[in-house]
Amino acid sequence: MLGRNSVKRAVKRTAGWAASLEMLLAGRRACEGACVFYYHRVADVDFVDGAVDDWNVRPETFERQVAALSEFAEIVPLLELPRRLRSKQRGGRPLVSLTFDDGYASFHRHALPVLKRYGVHATAFVVTGTVGHEGPQPFDRWARKNLGRTRAEDWRAMTWDELEGCVASGLVHLGAHSHAHLRGSLCTPEQLAEEAGRSREVLRERLGDVQARAYAYPYGSTRLGDASPAYAAAVRAAGYEAAVTTDLGLASEESDPFLLPRIEAHALDAPGVLRAKAVGALAPYRLTDNLRLLNRAL
User: What is the model's pTM?
Assistant: First the structure.
């Protein structure tokens, strides 16, 4: 019997083919919005757990994706998107931003060298309460399940030295991904304020005021309450300039800067699929996203 993750991968592969076909049939080349791609782990993991998603893209796949994006899109820092979306001086290429959730050490080891080779900016969102911890992060089910068959570099959080190395590159802005990675839908107003405020305070104290200007909601769905209006208000009150969800879609001039949608960059995404996502050929993904959210809500 196929495991749950094996089914999800098959569905995502099919959705990618369908999105590429949608783009070709619609003749889409560019759009008015911007695509905020999100990654988690970029690690050299040589197996796929059929039951639990590793949220992983292998380093060689990640480099192929960045190379392709660099050719057909304009990759800009996340915090520049609102200004670029308001600007009337738009080129013919889609606008794209790259973001990374959870602050894995593999970002420093594998993703950062690729960003340097291509001169590409990115935002890495860090769970401040787990920086430097030696064990798997508490929310990482895949790491805990596969601890005996993986290396620490595949799942541990970055250290402060590694975070400083990211900042020193001049290509990475460090945002906050909360302090304890709590699910927003289960938090009290006081916990939401703590998650947003404390994570920003920690990053600014350790790395300076130019960091922690952006926030990524853990789990991130507005429809399931993990990125609620109350949470967005807490993030705004903490002093951030923008925040991202996991809601599927392109960011536009009308988007709330504290509830920006994103699109997953998956290990199965070939250049054609990335292009389809970047220009908004998302109908197949909206179908699978609705089914996923329905399953989580049941």
Answer: 0.92
